[in-house]
Fold:
Amino acid sequence: MENCLFCKIAAGVIPSTKVYEDETVLAFRDIAPQAPTHILVIPKAHISGMSEVSAENAALVAHCLEVVALVARQENLTGGYRVVSNCGDDAGQTVHHLHFHILGGRKLSLEMA
Ligand code: AMP
Structure:
């Protein structure tokens, strides 16, 4: 996707602070962290958000979640962490490329909205 920020980050055209990378998935630090540890996990292939998850891309999405768990271990988030994927305008999704936020490193508020 030509104008997708995270496609450009996945391609290395825009720099990021990578914490994990393999052939299909990338994890990098959020530029505006909301917690001491705030990492984004993305598929390198463009999926616009959770609403586009399907049988065709489910294996890739599952691999993203595998990487979420791996990165959380790597970051020593032993006290716990939150995984968030905002979908659509009402949820406040600003980048329309599927991503999973990993938030941790402090006690998080229980507020969900
Ligand atoms: P969302 O609002 O759920 O779509 O999340 C998008 C996230 O991308 C926000 O937390 C932003 O701070 C983060 N973000 C935007 N641009 C960059 C960038 N160049 N590098 C790292 N994170 C970014």
Summary: The helical segments are 5-11, 58-74. The mean pLDDT is 96. The chain has one domain: 5-104. The pocket of adenosine monophosphate is lined by residues 5, 14, 16, 30-32, 40, 86, 92-95 (CB under 6 Å).
